[in-house]
Amino acid sequence: xxxxxxxxxxxxxxxxxxxxxxxxxxxxxxxxxxxxxxxxxxxxxxxxxxxxxxxxxxxxxxxxxxxxxxxxxxxxxxxxxxxxxxxxxxxxxxxxxxxxxxxxxxxxxxxxxxxxxxxxxxxxxxxxxxxxxxxxxxxxxxxxxxxxxxxxxxxxxxxxxxxxxxxxxxxxxxxxxxxxxxxxxxxxxxxxxxxxxxxxxxxxxxxxxxxxxxxxxxxxxxxxxxxxxxxxxxxxxxxxxxxxxxxxxxxxxxxxxxxxxxxxxxxxxxxxxxxxxxxxxxxxxxxxxxxxxxxxxxxxxxxxxxxxxxxxxxxxxxxxxxxxxxxxxxxxxxxxxxxxxxxxxxxxxxxxxxxxxxxxxxxxxxxxxxxxxxxxxxxxxxxxxxxxxxxxxxxxxxxxxxxxxxxxxxxxxxxxxxxxxxxxxxxxxxxxxxxxxxxxxxxxxxxxxxxxxxxxxxxxxxxxxxxxxxxxxxxxxxxxxxxxxxxxxxxxxxxxxxxxxxxxxxxxxxxxxxxxxxxxxxxxxxxxxxxxxxxxxxxxxxxxxxxxxxxxxxxxxxxxxxxxxxxxxxxxxxxxxxxxxxxxxxxxxxxxxxxxxxxxxxxxxxxxxxxxxxxxxxxxxxxxxxxxx
Length: 629
Prior knowledge:
By secondary structure, the chain is of the alpha+beta class. 55% of the residues lie in helices and 15% in strands. InterPro entries: Kinesin-like_fam (IPR027640), Kinesin_motor_CS (IPR019821), Kinesin_motor_dom (IPR001752), Kinesin_motor_dom_sf (IPR036961), P-loop_NTPase (IPR027417).
């Protein structure tokens, strides 16, 4: 899909003293043919129906043409929103901004952010709007089984060298290809993001690292191609698993969104570039020329056996976007100024050829078992299993700490109960003393009262009153005593229960400590046995090496004896006898070594001395035989 955007005239074009501004672009203002655009020297005359103006006109038809009055929202909703939604469904999508330098490519793709660096204004471009739509789709997905993982990357191609805009020090990156990932940039950093704000921070970092410079045609000309890549991984339950008796299986879809802001093509005579700027312009034009060659090869009437994707890093990275598994939209930007008619005409011809490319996009479903989302889930499952196994094998220290805390709490409760019991006992004794004092006082008063020559207590009315008062006091005393006794029993039961609980906690703690000690002792035994085994293995290896060495020397001596016997058969009985006795001794020592597989260092030195003596005797016998021969 190819669309064209005509930017409004800028002050540099309107205020040009040498060539007054005149529009060279004519669009269909009626809206009946929104994809038509015409370039000519006299756009006003063409609109008025002038035959002379129509003589040199160039007409094109695209999917959509945006006039100078088109807003950022209108451009995004028309040519980018569907591609962004397709990415969340597992498709690949690419949006490419192409055009002459200074025609509004970066404005269309990135737009303008506010003073705080946030892309919240209506002038924000396709990239921030795409990011907002991706996360809006994730938030609106109400399925509880859906999971998403979003990764972001940003690179630039400067002088045909790829560098990472989000991580310093990563330059001259290479392009690789495999069956699962397709074409990718080796060593490019990927950042897992959870909100649009995190991506905006990455964008600001990448924009600050991108190479820009001022030219005669553009005060902030991009000197490199920039590509912002967004990967959306979506995991959901497969449709076949729902409602079936089988265990639910997950389906993984991976969608990739490439947002490409190409550096503008330049004519050195127009931009006034020189020195480094001229070299940059050459590299930019070379990569754009390679892009044009790829498009020409893809749109040729006769299919070509070879498409020159490898001629430039740009075309290599965009290989799947051009004729591959991708939904690609190209936004061609032009200026309405008649002074740039040649550049605008070249841009529209390029876009017209690109419109003939046919892609075959399909859902990337469960293509790679190593998707980051699936890898995270497998790692989480493995960690949970490992945690469960460790909890079964190791002593749970948290439980031991909890038991200790409960023990301390029980001791505090016991102390509080004892304190309360002592206070209640003191209250009981105080009330008892008050009762005794009251009874003594009553007795004293009764003994002092006399009426009519007799005692007061002997009068019937007084006796009845005293009996009633005694009964009331005794009843209250007994009730109070019963209450205190009941409370005392309850507290004693609580104390007994606290003691039992404390004893149980102590037993559990002792068991846990004993288990821990046994585990530590077993670990120490294992380590000690392993060390002893390593010592035995080293000693056995040393003995085997000694035996092999001596056996080799025996074979060499026997070979020398046989050769000498063949060459000089006379007078060799003494040599044969010496070799036989020495060989027998060596074989006997070797058998002993193989049988025991161990020996002390003193035995090894004795055997080594015997070996040297036997070897010297053999050499003397050999020399004597040779001299006699």
